[in-house]
Each structure stands twice: as C-alpha cells, then as structure tokens.
Amino acid sequence: MNNDASNPAMASTSINSFDTSLFAKTTHNPSYASLTKQFSEVNNLRDYCIPVNSYFPPAQVMEKLHEKMGYALKYYPGSNENIAENIATFSGIENPATIIAGNGSTEIISWLNSLFIKESLFVPAPSFGRWIEEPQGLGIELHTSRYQDSLNQYLSPEQLVAEVKQSGARNLVICNPNNPTGSIMSRAQILSVLDQLTELDNIIIDESFIDFSAENPPSIKNDVADFPNAWVLKSLGKNVGLHGLRMGFAISNETNIAKLRKHLPYWNVNGITEMLLHLIKDEQATYHESRLKTIADAVYLSERFEELPEFTIFPTHSNFIFVKLRNDINGTQLRDRMLQNHGCFIRNCGNKLGSSEQYFRIAARPAEDVNYLIAALKIELAVLTKIEDEPMLHANLINNGAV
Ligand SMILES: Cc1ncc(COP(=O)(O)O)c(C=O)c1O
To answer: pLDDT tens for residues 232-290?
Structure first.
C-alpha cells in the first residue's frame, strides 16, 4: 500500500473511514473533532472547509501562550471592558467603549437575534447559517433575496435597499464580504445603504471575513458608531487562525453597547482568549503580512480551479472561493468521495438556504495543499464524469459499493 501523503494519486484510497452520515446531522458542518474521532485520526484529514488564516499567530506568540496557560486556566479573566481595549488596539478601532467582546462572534449573534431583532429580518441568501436559522427558530419573520449566478453573485446596494424597503422588514443583516459567495460592497456603498435605511431598527454588517478582502479592507468599523441603528459584527477566530478559542466582537454606538452589556454574563470571554488578545495586540505588522499571504493563497486557489472545467468560479473577496459544479455531476457524491478517498474536507452548500448541493465554498490554503486538492479533484471528477456518461458503469459501481 503506497501512502505518499503529498500526492493523491499515490495515496491509498482505503486510509480513511470518515463517517459521512455526520453531514446529515448538522446544518453547519461536522466538527473537526467529530470527523477525526476526537483528534485521534487528524493526520488523514485535510481541511478546506473552514476559512482561516494559515499564517497567524506567529510561533513566539503560541510559545508564550503555552508558557502562561496555567495562569489563564487558574484565574478568572478580566472584565469585558478590559478585553475590549485589547481588541481595539489589535483591530484599529478608535473608541474601545464602542466594542463588546463575545465568546466567539456567534455569542453576539445570538444576543442580537434574541434581544434586538424583533418581528422581521432581511438577509440576502445564501448567508452564514446563524443569521438565517436562529432568527427563524425564534419566530422572527425572515425575508430574503438570492445572490444570482447571472450577476456573478454580486448584490448591488441599489437592489438591496429596494428589496429591503419592499419587504417591509424591520432589520437587515448583510455579511461583507458574504459567506459563502465571497461578494463584497465598498465602504461607500455600505455607508449609503445605512444612510438610506435609517428607519430600520437594526442593520448589522457582519465583517467577519473583511480582513481577507483586500490590502485595505473596506471596513466601516470606525464609522458605525455614528449611526443609531447600525452594528458591525466580527469574528476574530478566522482572523487569527484559532477558531477553537472563541473570539469575536460587535461595534456600535455607546448606547447600544451599554444596552447589550446589561444582558451579558460577566465573564463571557475565557482567560485563554484574554491572554491571546493581550499577546497579539501589538502584532499588527505580522498580522498584516499574514493577511496578504492569505489573500495571495485565495488568488492561487481561484487560478488553479480554472483547470477544472466542471466548475464555474465566482469572483471572490475573501479567503475562500465559491464555485458551482456542473449540474450533471452529483455534488454530495463529490464531497463524500473527496473525504473518503483523499481526506479532503470540502464545504458543500447543499444545506444552506438559497444554495444547493452543486455549490461549494473552498477555503484558501497554502499552495502545497491547494495542489493536493486540485489533483484529488481531477481524479474524482474523472470518475464521476465517467459515471454520468456511462450509466452501466454507474450501476456496477453502486452494486460494488463504490458510489
Ligand atoms: C459570516 C460569519 N459571521 C460569524 C461567524 C461566527 O464566527 P465565530 O463565532 O467563530 O466568531 C461565522 C462563522 O463561520 C461567519 O461565517
């Protein structure tokens, strides 16, 4: 058995026993822990699902974090206000009093959904699941419109404002750039949306991926507090490459922040996150470099996908690409075969409102990992295309349990 790990053609096809039934049990994706049986089979899994910064934090930060871990575990963390100050320094936000820190930005999303968003919400789809499923679960009326293939998944501010007004929704969430489409609006466009929708109760601009959109990201982080009804939400896990830590925040005017703070558990952010934020707060230069490398990885990924005529590639402004598979190839089969035969974990968007199993979000990774992915895709696409072209072969493969 040949297990050359750098070449999918040489790697054994029987090395993986990932449980693909896990996909049906969640509207997100199975966790890395569940797929690897609590990290006991990590080596075989290559993650192209979670868009994360591969070049941060620097090794010396991780060394210091390990050194001091005992303290972070033993003692209570500081207040949310202290933590917000480190976030402000790291993220270049002028007024720390406009920041509230969360146990991951998902915590803040839940607070916004349950405390601020009442009656109805407009979210262009597809979007991040917590902005769709949680409000629906809370009985909030969801209004939505579709990002279109024919418009390259781009949504213009004019169209957005018109659709929101027409829907009568009281609240709006827009991810900028959007997950999973990768489309973006400029800072001026977002500000014009805010100017035109002052009658709404809340407008939330989720900028979780904005640091990977350009060298100078079009963030409204230092403008948002000027609006009475606007929020910026940001996940930090993606930016600093550590999702497991749970780090995120929201920015709004001081009145909104004070209102939200009253509901927050006092120590909602854990001591390890607090320590990490302290260690990275002056690492802006290293962080900037890591962002640029990540952006370059996304460009390379997009270019390499051009070798696969089975996919349509949409323009991206983030650290992932959004692609559509030819309709006559089964997207779920491709996802499962990539996992089982090559250990490549890719995000099929079949469980997202406004998407289908033909769409994939592929996370940018260093070139070597992208090379592996493309080689593995070529192998599986050749098999699946052959299956489509030759129904008898398809039947035989099903009988042999290969599909
Ligand atoms: C657009 C968007 N916002 C927020 C989040 C939540 O991130 P976290 O809770 O890890 O900060 C995600 C996660 O994928 C996301 O895609």
So the answer is: 999 999 999 999 999 999 999 999 999 999 999 999 999 999 999 999 999 999 999 99
Instruction: State if residue 235 touches ligand 1 by the CB under 6 angstroms criterion.
Output: yes
CATH of 20-56+286-399, one of 1.20.120.530, 3.40.50.1000, 3.30.70.1350, 3.90.1150.10: 3.90.1150.10
Continuous H helices in 75-132:
80-91, 105-111
CA distance 54 to 366: 7
Q: Tell how strand 320-325 and strand 359-363 pair up.
A: antiparallel
375-390: b (≥16 Cβ within 10 Å) or e = bbbebbbebbeebeee
Please check whether residue 247 is in contact with residue 216, taking contact to mean a CB–CB distance below 8 angstroms. no
179 lines ligand 1 (CB under 6 A): yes
The answer, as to whether pTM is greater than 0.70, is: yes
Substitution site in 127, 235, 276 for ligand 1 pocket (most atoms within 8 Å of beta carbon): 235
pLDDT digits (tens, 9 = 90+) for 107-153: 999 999 999 999 999 999 999 999 999 999 999 999 999 999 999 99
Atom of ligand 1 nearest to the CA of 127: 1
Query: For ligand 1, atom 13, which residue shows the shortest CA distance?
Result: 128
Q: Write down the residue that tokens 């998407």 correspond to.
A: 355
Beta carbon of 29 within 6 Å of any ligand 1 atom: no
127 lines ligand 1 (CB under 6 A): no
